[in-house]
Amino acid sequence: MRPVKGLHPLMTFLPSGWSRAHARQRGSHAFACARVALLALVLILLAAAGAPACAAVRKTAAAAARQPPADLRDLDAWLAYQDRAHITALPAEARIFYRRALTAWKSGESSEAVRLTRGAIELDPSYAAPQLKLTTWLLLREPSQAVLGLTALYDLVRRDFLLQHGIAANAVFFLLYALFFAVLAAAALLVALRHQELLHMWEERFGTRLTAVTTRWWAWIYLLLPMVLGLGLAFPTLLFLGMLWPLLRVRERLLFITLVILVAAAPLAPVLMGRLAAPLRADGPPFFGVAAMQNEPATMEQRQRLAALAARHPSNPFVHFGLGWSARRGGDLGTAEAAYRKALERWPDNDRVLVDLGNVLAAKGSFDQALALYQRAIEVAPNNAAAHFNASQVHNRRFDYQAANQEVTRASELDFELVRAFQAETPAPGELPLADQWLPPVTFWRALLDRTASGIGAPAIPPAWRGLLELSVWWFSVTGFLLAVTGVLLGIHWQRRLPVRACSNCGRVVCRRCAERRREMALCPSCTMVAARAASPEFARVLLLQHARRVERSRRLVTTSLATLIPGSGQIAFHRVFGAVSLLASCILIAFPWLGVAPPFTSDQQLAMPADGNPWVALAALGFLYLTSLMSYLRRAARADAARAAAAVPVRSRVAQATRLEREAA
Ligand SMILES: [Zn+2]
Ligand SMILES: [Zn+2]
Asked: 627 burial class (0-12, 13-18, 19+ CB within 10 angstroms)?
């Protein structure tokens, strides 16, 4: 619907019912409705002039119409009441009807659930949860409706700082959580898969004084003792992976470094989380609860609280803005003007505050000052539709219809919905319908992320992290770092003194002390024994090859069963560290609802977790990840086997020859 020239100046003075009805019409109805509205205006004026008694009756009728319905189950009555009383949002009632919709959906009454959810959205258009739920419900049934829902949702998120904050802060929390545990799990799996090297280091240290069997036991005890002592997974993993440092590949070393950085940075987590939680606190800087105030009912207590805060924190523009907003809605124009002026001192170029202050001045009748403020707002932000719209209202009031027309046309070009919504509203007689503007999300973000500002949010640990960082984050961090450094130094020292390497034939762990030199090969004790049984070098080679295959088969059995049990471990067996970490992190992210980890940054506006409705989606995703992990492991294993077979071909031909020789000898 395009704005109709010459109609707007009239429309703003039409009675509410008519202009509101007009707003709901489309296209060609505009003229017809305006005519009906004019007729109604004339009739009402005549009636009002002719019958004062009648006016009194109407007044009580109007007061009755503004009474809320008594029945909280009657959605239509509440919608009609909202319409009659011109209330933009009924947040509490919207939540009640939305909860009822969820119950209806669970008991299988889907059409009732959709009706109630739509009602909840209409009762509180800024309430995002029902919008998201409705979109997921309609995704398969009515895709076009779902697309509309998504558009509405995007629009909500774009305008609402608290929604953006909830999404971003919870995403940071979950990503850090998943990253830490994925890296830790991958590192622990790496230690488990390389435990032979670690055991050998221990064995050689104690083997000089103890028998072979006791040595093995002692080595296992040292390996498992830290975990039994309740030091968790992080400390032993840091120490042991550090000791393996000289034997690790580049990618595996990067994994170790990442783990050390994550543990060392742990003390920063409460600081970060505390700052992220700051907007949810009504009693702390930088917002003092102002971020959640946009749709709150303006009460006397709210104004008193904000006035006290403004006196205590004169340099905080949010408190002044909140006070101005609350006072303006409560009709206290003097306080509103003073508060907005204070906010403007801090934010001289904030077009929203300029517009809001202009509105207060316009409401007080200072039209020239108001127009000057709108003009400044337009200079700062040429696309501010509300500044143009409000200017048109002021021009209207001064009967400057040409200027009013220009401004309202510009406003409709910029934001048609705004103009339509405000022309639908009609305030009390003598009042101008002016569009007040809430602060844009970017203003809140800038204050929250301002690095120079101190005292924003006391350090806090989300409940899900308390078990991990229980004792003290500093203690955890310093101990972990020291263990990692000790591990690396010890590993390098031992490796220099007594290098650990792989048996040339079977790949088992050997060192200088236990390996047997056999020409260019260094063999492990069992390979030496096998070779000693053969009479000829050719036959020895055959036996060694058989032995190597047997060892490889049992090793493969272990890695395959591990890969079947834990997604990602197959990748680690083939040194694909980053694939393993991303797989593990994805699994942890999907499994959050089952791990009992709730999003810590919840406000009333919080979008529901996507997984809470349908566990099958999450299960399917987990199954897909598991299969991906297993298939990629099997593919790599097959490739490794093929490569080994190719390398063994010349040997095999010699083997065949040797077997023939052997048979002849027999
Ligand atoms: Zn060997
Ligand atoms: Zn050895």
From this structure: exposed
Cβ 255 vs Cβ 186: under 8 Å? yes
Q: How far is the CA of 552 from the centre of ligand 2 (A)?
A: 20
What's the pLDDT score for residue 208? 60
Residues 566-600: pLDDT tens digits?
Answer: 888 899 989 899 999 999 999 988 887 777 777 77
C-beta pairs of 6-11 under 8 Å, 24+ apart in sequence: 6/401, 6/405, 7/34, 8/392, 8/396, 8/404, 8/405, 8/408, 8/423, 9/396, 9/401, 9/404, 9/405, 10/34, 10/38, 11/37, 11/423
Q: How confident is the model at residue 464 (pLDDT cuts 50, 70, 90)?
A: low
* Residue 407 backbone dihedrals phi, psi, to 5 degrees: -65, -45
What pTM did the predictor assign?
A: 0.75
Tell me the average pLDDT across 496-504. 88
Dist. CA 637–CA 639, nearest whole Å: 5
Is the distance from CB of 588 to CB of 574 less than 8 angstroms? no
CA atoms within 13 A on the CB side of 598: 8
249 C-alpha to ligand 2 centroid (Å): 21
User: Do the strands 521-523 and 509-511 form a parallel or antiparallel pair, or are they unpaired?
Assistant: unpaired
Q: Which ligand is nearest to the CA of 523?
A: 1
Instruction: Check whether 648 has a pLDDT greater than 80.
Output: no
DSSP secondary structure code for residue 606 in this structure: P
Ligand nearest to the CA of 501: 2
Q: How many other β-carbons are positioned within 10 Å of the β-carbon of residue 49?
A: 9
Answer left, alpha or beta for residue 399, where phi above 0 means left and psi between -120 and 50 means alpha.
left
